[in-house]
């Protein structure tokens, strides 16, 4: 199935000495034809040395943050198909071919290993599942899809993703960025459930619940505004319109019954809200048209690279 295509396993790591050796060995066993790359992100332990001892190609990324590592991965590794997996031994290597199969068959550009169907009691910190569901609901609503796990770090993808998806995030919001960019550029995404394990003893999570959660939501807000301006500014316009109507009811009622406008400040507020509502709707239409033209240009430029 994969004899004619090169496969690269990409493993981002920061202080994963307790697990990286096993992860490299497991993926070497599951995908003996693949080349395994460990991207060491400012580790202060023996992660890089252990990875090299187990036969992985180690590449150092001095900019600390998972987003920077993913950017380096897509820029520096050339292959036909890629597997990206965290180095904490929570994702099963024996499901790698299951993720790769649709990509190798040309049925998907990216396959996401979803974790929420099968996981240990302590696989997720408190609030993480709730946060994942919130982000999933927002993305599904905005983009009209039915994804189940937006934040999974276990993915298989092809060159279309590498060529089309720009990475500008520096931290853990990079999975959200990968997903949204792929949807925006109309790449084919599939999901397949994978068991999600518990971090082994000695391995510590680098994810900060509230700080990284806020960064993910802020990234989602910015990407929705950039990629779906008509929807984003349309909603803003609608809210302003409703507020304008509510503010305008007393002045209009007064004028209709007495011919006077004692609630003059409300009349001014209502007028201002209606002007802002119209301006927001107009801005959304203009940005939508510009966005479409930029997407056309992007598609032409990407086509020329193939």
From TrEMBL:
Species annotation: marine sediment metagenome
Protein name as annotated: Glycosyltransferase 2-like domain-containing protein
Pfam family, one: Glycos_transf_2
Extent of the signal sequence: none
CDD domains according to UniProt: DPM_DPG-synthase_like (cd04179)
Occurrences of domain Glycosyltransferase 2-like (ranges): 9-163
Keywords annotated in UniProt: Membrane, Transmembrane, Transmembrane helix
InterPro entries: Glyco_trans_2-like (IPR001173), Glycosyltransferase_2 (IPR050256), Nucleotide-diphossugar_trans (IPR029044)
């Amino acid at each position: 199935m994969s004899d004619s295509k090169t496969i690269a396993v990409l493993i981002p790591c920061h202080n994963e000495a307790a697990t990286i050796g096993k992860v490299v060995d497991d993926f070497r066993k599951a995908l003996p034809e693949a080349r395994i790359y460990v991207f060491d992100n400012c580790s202060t332990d023996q992660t890089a040395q252990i990875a090299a001892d187990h036969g992985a190609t180690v590449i150092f990324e001095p900019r600390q943050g998972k987003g920077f590592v993913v950017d380096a991965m897509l820029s520096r590794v050339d292959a036909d198909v890629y597997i990206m997996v965290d180095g904490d031994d929570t994702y099963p290597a024996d499901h790698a071919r299951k993720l790769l199969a649709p990509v190798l068959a040309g049925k998907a550009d990216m396959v996401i290993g979803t974790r929420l169907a099968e996981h240990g009691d302590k696989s997720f910190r408190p609030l993480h599942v709730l946060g994942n569901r919130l982000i999933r609901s927002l993305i599904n609503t905005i983009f009209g899809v039915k994804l189940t796990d937006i934040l999974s770090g276990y993915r298989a993808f092809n060159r279309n993703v590498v060529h089309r998806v720009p990475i500008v995030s520096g931290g853990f919001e990079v999975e959200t960025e990968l997903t949204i960019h792929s949807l925006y550029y109309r790449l084919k995404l599939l999901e397949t459930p994978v068991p999600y394990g518990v971090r082994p003893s000695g391995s510590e999570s680098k994810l900060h619940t509230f700080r990284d959660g806020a960064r993910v939501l802020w990234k989602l807000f910015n990407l929705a505004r950039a990629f779906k301006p008509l929807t984003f500014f349309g909603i803003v316009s609608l809210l302003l319109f409703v507020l304008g109507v509510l503010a305008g009811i007393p002045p209009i009622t007064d004028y209709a019954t007495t011919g006077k406008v004692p609630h003059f400040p409300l009349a001014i507020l209502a007028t201002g809200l209606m002007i802002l509502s119209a301006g927001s709707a107009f801005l959304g239409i203009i940005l939508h048209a510009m966005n479409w033209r930029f997407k056309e240009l992007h598609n032409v430029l990407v086509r020329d690279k193939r």
